[in-house]
Amino acid sequence: AIKNSDGLTPCPQCRKGFVINKTKNKNKRDFFQCSRAEVCDYVAAICDCGYHLDRYENDDVRYVIKQNQQNIKDSLESSYDARNVFVAEKLSFVSAQIPVSEIRKLSLYGNVKIIGDGELKLELLGHDSNHNGNDLYFENLYQAKEMINANNLSYDGTGVQVAVLDQGVDEDHPDLVNKISYESDCDNVTECDHTKLNKSIHGTRQAGIIAGSGHSNSLMEGVSNNANLFDIPTRSYQGALAIALDHSLSKGANISNISLGSGVCGDTHVLQTLIDESIDEGMIVVSGAGNGNG
Fold first, then answer.
1. For the segment 163-209, what is each residue's pLDDT rounded down to a tens digit?
2. 8-state DSSP, 253
3. Rounded to whole angstroms, how far apart are CA atoms 53 and 44?
4. CB 13 within 8 A of CB 34
5. pLDDT, tens digit, 9 for 90 and up, residues 111-141
6. What are the residue ranges of helices labelled H in the chain?
7. Torsion angles phi and psi, residue 126, rounded to 5
8. What predicted TM-score, i.e. pTM, was given to this entire model?
9. d(C-alpha 220, C-alpha 60), whole Å
10. Going by C-beta distance under 8 Å and a sequence separation of 6 or more, which residues neighbour residue 150?
11. Crossing angle for the helix pair 58-67 and 69-79, nearest 10 degrees?
């Protein structure tokens, strides 16, 4: 790092203050902040080549971002004309709607690791409209489970919380009565609404596959019929799904089921990063693969 004649390193963000030691993280690495912390939210870890967030281990990056989320929110609103800013509770991200002209400037911001498009459209997997002639169909869940040796399992999901991140579950379906222990609609760019309104065939099917009781048909019993379900409707966009993922984790979900995907490789790098972080936090993330009629 470049130092002045007094041996002090100018803050690389505001250029007015100087970098001072702040604290140590769990890996005993030094973290630094600007001496003008009341007006400058620069925080970084030190490495041989200077101060740069991109060069740190994932744990360090998360630590820096989590420590500065409120500052990042304030900066986005005051300096980047941001609206609808959401600060994650468990994961290390902040989402916001900002003018296109301001996006490039974000790359110069000291506490940014990755920038992603929250409006990236995701497609439902296993939806009727996506059916093609090569899809594999089963007459019932028993046949489907038999293919993966999931019938007559010794463990029935007791005590496990599974979040269904989809378009909503019909809790009145006879196979899902008393199965849903928590519901919240994350169909918003800034928060999750605890008054769940959405119901869909797709989400109901996913819930039935996971924990259906088989009351209506014994051959349609779910894989873990004693698991508790979190019904988390969300929009089919990367940003909304990230919020839903964070919300599920904060409410204690052990597993999240996501039947959404993008047809464009590489566009979901931000979401992939957050999924990796969710797994590191102890949540199993199950994603749909392939396609078919539910």
1. 999 888 999 999 999 999 999 988 776 778 776 667 888 889 999 99
2. -
3. 6
4. yes
5. 667 777 887 777 776 555 545 555 567 888 9
6. 58-67, 69-79, 100-106, 141-147, 201-211, 238-250, 269-280
7. 80, 35
8. 0.73
9. 46
10. 223
11. 60
